[in-house]
Amino acid sequence: MSEKLKLLITGLNGVVGQALRPALEERYTISALSRSGVDGLPPERVFKANVADIESLRPAFEGIDVVLNLAADGGMGSEEGMNAGWDSMLHNNIIGAYNVLEVARQAGVSRVILASSGATSNGYELEEPYKSLVSTKDVEIPESWEMVNEFSEPKPVSLYGVTKLFGEDLGRYYAATTPLSVINLRISSCGPVDKAGPGRAQANWASHRDTQQLTIKIIEAPADLKFDIFWATSDNRKLFRDNSHAKEVLGYTPQDGVR
Question: Has residue 32 been placed in a domain?
C-alpha cells in the first residue's frame, strides 16, 4: 500500500477548514499550522505559527507534498467579515500568501493550493442580471445570462477581494518561475451550516461535499497542471459563477445544488 500524501493545511480551524477536514483527514496525512493550534491531531503534526512571520513557518513544511493555504482575514469566518482591517489583511492575506509560497518553494513542496474567494468578482452582483439572481426579494429571473468564469474581468468591491486577486497573481508568478504548481480555489458560499441561505447563496452556494470533492481533485491533479483557477460552486439553478472549467479540466461532478 502506497504511503499517504502529506498535506499541510493553514487555517484549518476556519469555516472552510472545518467543512473540508473530514474528507481530507480520511484520505491524507494531515498537518495543521495556525496561531492557536488545532485539536484532534497528533502533537507532532500541529504547528503554532503566524503566516506573516516567515521564519516561524519552516518546521511545518518539512516533508510536505501539498499545502492548502486557508489562512486569511476578511472572509466569512472573520469577526468583521469583508470589512476586516487593512493591517490584518495585509499581514494575513498578502504577506502571508507570499511567505507560504516562498517557504513551500524552498522546502520542495510540489503544489500549493491558495484559497481565493468569490469576493474577487462580487461587483457583478451590483449589475443586472446578477443583481436579480442574488436578490432576497421575489423578482423576475431572466431566462438566461452570461456566466462569470475564472477569466472574466475581476470586479472586487472590497479590499478583501483585492487581496485575494493579489494572491492569485502571486500564485501565477510562482507557477511561471519556480517548480511549484499553484492552483487557486475560488471558494463561494460555503458556510458553517451546510445549507444555502436566502439571497446570494441561492446562486453561489457550494455544499460541503462538493467543495471537498473539488479540493481533492485539485490536490490529486496531474503535476503538469502548473497553474489554474477554479470556482467552487454547486450546480444551483441561479448559478452564474461558472464551474464548467473545473468539470472540463478536473472531472468535477457536483452532487448538490439549489433548484
Answer: yes
State the SS3 of 183-197: EEEEECECCCCCCCC
- Predicted model pTM: 0.95
pLDDT digits (tens, 9 = 90+) for 89-128: 999 999 999 999 999 999 999 999 999 999 999 999 999 9
Name the residue range of residue 219's domain: 6-250
Quick check: is 245 in a domain? yes
Note whether residue 194 is domain-resident. yes
pLDDT per position as a tens digit, 170-212:
999 999 999 999 999 999 999 999 999 999 999 999 999 999 9
* Strands, E assignment, the chain: 6-10, 29-34, 46-48, 66-69, 111-117, 181-187, 227-232
For 212, the grid coordinates are 471537498
As for how many domains the chain has, the answer is 1
